[in-house]
Inverse folding.
């Protein structure tokens, strides 16, 4: 039996330059805030022409690793978890829009994530944290008769604050990203659902469990909140499908 030949493909010079520059950033040779070497210096260092250097730099810029400014040298960006998710935002929204089942998968992932998040928050919250959450609920209630967009923003802020209380910046970044992606698809439902008072009551019960440092109770209340929201979204989507 004859096997298929394994073809060796020659990589573009710009890809080779890109790999070298990434390694320089990862190794700390180029640190956040540093200016990148000039195009001429990179051409000399890697033995390549200007087009390969420019293409590699543009790819780094598009990925958020550096910033290219006209009239100035490129600069290495400060990269954190939130920056990574921001860079992926458009792609994730496209993936969710193209395949509705992915919204369900994301809701399931969010449920698992937020139950662990609220457990940590119950253990780590401070009195100032409780005050901030209470203030968010008060603002959310005030928006009931004013502006649904602000009501939704306060809803997102409540969950974001719990993620912040958990004390882990990666948890905070992941939570903010997932909530933002889901709310982009939930907004139509939230405008007609009539469940705003239910949402406020659920938020208050979650806060009460956090105040009591009752981790199990907080997890149970968050599960009730997310499951009810998920069911409402599913019913709304089925209704919209029936109208089509």
């Amino acid at each position: 039996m004859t096997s298929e030949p394994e073809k060796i493909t020659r990589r573009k010079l710009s890809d080779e330059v890109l790999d070298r520059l990434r390694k320089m950033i990862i190794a700390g040779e180029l640190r956040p805030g540093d200016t990148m070497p000039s195009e001429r210096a990179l051409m000399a260092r890697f033995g390549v022409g200007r087009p390969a250097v420019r293409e590699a730099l543009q790819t780094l810029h598009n990925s958020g690793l550096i910033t290219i400014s006209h009239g100035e040298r490129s600069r290495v960006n400060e990269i954190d978890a939130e920056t990574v998710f921001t860079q992926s935002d458009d792609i994730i929204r496209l993936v969710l829009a193209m395949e509705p089942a992915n919204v369900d998968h994301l809701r399931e992932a969010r449920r698992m994530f937020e139950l662990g998040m609220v457990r940590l928050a119950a253990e780590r919250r401070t009195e100032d944290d409780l005050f901030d959450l209470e203030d968010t609920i008060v603002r959310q209630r005030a928006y009931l008769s004013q502006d649904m967009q602000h009501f939704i923003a306060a809803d997102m802020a409540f969950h974001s604050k719990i993620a912040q209380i958990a004390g882990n910046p990666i948890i905070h970044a992941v939570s903010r990203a997932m909530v933002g992606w889901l709310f982009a698809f939930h907004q139509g439902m939230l405008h007609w659902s009539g469940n705003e008072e239910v949402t406020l009551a659920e938020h208050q019960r979650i806060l009460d469990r956090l105040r009591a440092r009752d981790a199990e109770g907080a997890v149970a209340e968050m599960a009730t909140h997310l499951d009810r929201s998920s069911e409402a979204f599913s019913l709304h989507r089925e209704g919209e499908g029936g109208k089509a």
In short: The chain is about 75% helix and 0% strand. The mean pLDDT is 86. Residues 140 and 154 are 5 Å apart (CA to CA). The chain has two domains: 13-76, 82-243.
